[in-house]
Amino acid sequence: MLGSLGPEGQEFRKIIEGKGRYADKTGYLPRLVREGGGFLLSRPRGFGKSLLLDALGCLLSGEDALFKGLFVEKELGSLPRMRVIHLRMSEIAADPQGLGIGLQKSMGALLGKEGTFASEAYPSGLASETLESLASDSALKLAILVDDYDTPISDHFDKPSLRDANARILSGFYTELTGKIGSLVGLALFAGATRVALPQEPLAALRDISFLGEFGAVCGFLRQEMDLLFSDLYPGVSQRATQRPSQMPSQRPNISPKDGSGQGPGDIGADIMRWYGGYSFDGLHKVANPLSVLSFFKNNAFQEYFGQTALLDSLIATIIERGVSLREGFATDFKKMGADELRTADPFDYVASLYQNGFLTLDTEEAKGDGLWSLKVPNQEIRNIIEGKTSLR
Fold first, then answer.
1. pTM of the model
2. CA 20 to 30 Å from 101, out of 18, 72, 153, 200?
3. How many of the other CB atoms lie within 10 Å of CB of 326?
4. C-alpha torsion 274→267→23→15, nearest 10
5. Please, are residues 152 and 166 in contact by the beta-carbon 8 Å criterion?
């Protein structure tokens, strides 16, 4: 997953045809395709969700040559094919005329139509009509891949009126998409980061696989995957980069990560995992942030590459508004939380928001199996970012 030494150009076809570095996650895809129905996957930004959806789209479209030598190759002949509708919500929402117009243009493009739109509002029924038209023109069932399902809202947390307007539009649009699962749509996968402030009724129609152990490492680099991908680069990492990260002086509570990486002296892989790993989404697997790892190799330096610092400012403001001290807000002794609490859409639940956006992660699941997790700061990168933000307040 994520096959170049830079954040750009993360298209599955380009990586495979260009013989780029690719952590093979295709082994997770057959189960989704065979089971069918609607799925929801939440991971922080930078974890390779877009590449996963792109690979799934290529698989469903029958581009078998791209999967030669990958885990899924042996199952290609037994998997159904579908007509793929790939909706990149970050691009659609970036339309200068707004989300409503962006969705109308997107639906028109699927039907080969272009035009101007008099209303900025999303016309009710447009997605349903588009899906019905596409289905009638194909012998195949449809597959809907929704990438960055949350960005039309999460990118505008600081603009309540726009955020709420987009939420109303998405409520109708997503309801129409999920309403066709089973009849016209054989498979739907919605991938994004946070559910905060999103309309929950249409998402409730999807099976949330975000906490399932069988999908715990579907996004992110496991240590063995990282070693396989980058071990040839380890010897070339400079002495500057291999220096152990210093413990920043702080009066904050102890939030240093426990990554369990089993490091030894001079183990650059362990250093990378301590800086950018430690994430767990099922309480079992531990993975690293691919975008941060790639940025490390590109810049040859342990730095903070995680790009959601502006969002952290917003979450810190929420903590303060709730009357909670920052010392308490970022202490490690969080109460144990279950999946339903962590997937909440409540914008005032700052702990769930910190988790959904990658500032906290699951620690260990209770041995008694009650589905509750402790939370922790995942790694040195996030620790430094938090300390840098909170030390000024």
1. 0.89
2. 200
3. 17
4. 100
5. yes
In whole angstroms, what is the distance from residue 260 CA to residue 266 CA?
Answer: 16
State pLDDT tens for residues 332-372. Answer: 556 688 899 999 888 778 888 899 999 999 986 543 456 78
CATH 3.30.565 fits domain 12-215:
no
Q: pLDDT for 240-267, tens place per residue?
A: 676 545 444 333 333 333 333 444 445 8
- Region 292-314: mean pLDDT is 87
Within the chain, all domains assigned CATH 3.40.50 are found at 12-215
Q: Which two tokens stand for residue 57?
A: 């789209």
